[in-house]
Amino acid sequence: MTTRVTFIGAGNMAGAIIGGMIDSGFARQAITATSPDDSVLAPLRKRLGIHTATDNAAAVAEADVVVLAVKPQIMQGVCAGMQTAIQARKPLILSVAAGLPADTLEHWLGGELPVVRCMPNTPSLVGAGAAGLYANARVSDDQKRSAGELLEAVGLAEWVDEESLLDAVTAVSGSAPAYFFLMFEAMEQAGAELGLPADTARRLAMQTAYGAASMAMDSDQTPGELKRNVMSPGGTTERAIQHMENAGLRDIMQGAMRACADRASEMADELDKR
Q: How far apart are CA 67 and CA 60, in angstroms?
């Protein structure tokens, strides 16, 4: 039987995952997305050919997987409105909402439910995402496989054994696209100061990042080994790397990622106390 998936929320991330699922061969007729505003649903319905609904409780009544894709600040009310229907069905709950612990979601939905928490990132919108996933003890092997397949439809999916490690995932991949965008900004500015047109410097920087990431993904070598392969003794790359090391780039990155992970933990506490 085809797994029936209902998305509670029809924003960009839900649309990206649904599009990836369909591209991967998932049956359109087995997917439903909900929103209280049909004007939000109409573009998805037209573009992807899926079912849509404005009634969450009705939409989850026959779902095997329910994807929670609404803002954390309104999640409790959304869960309350479909708790009875969820308890009658007991589907797998997959949350892509940041900061809300699995046991909190399970409690809001009435308890005794399999819950997977996911931390995706914005490149999922172009099919190049990286996500971390955590499953509570009620999630079966088959359900875990289903959750992984949904996220793999838009990129890489990696499981963690402890829910607290999702804070580290936030630092390594969830927030990390912005780190690279900052680097692109800096490289564009530096290229312009060296005499290149800004748009030329931008395109060269972005293509180089894409190429470096592709090489690293396809290689058996570590990033450190790949870096050394580019560095000729006494050459230009060695000089640039030495400057970055002397300027404390490693400490800057470690500090930034620690600050990111700490804030993710703080936000989870704040949301859990509401």
A: 10
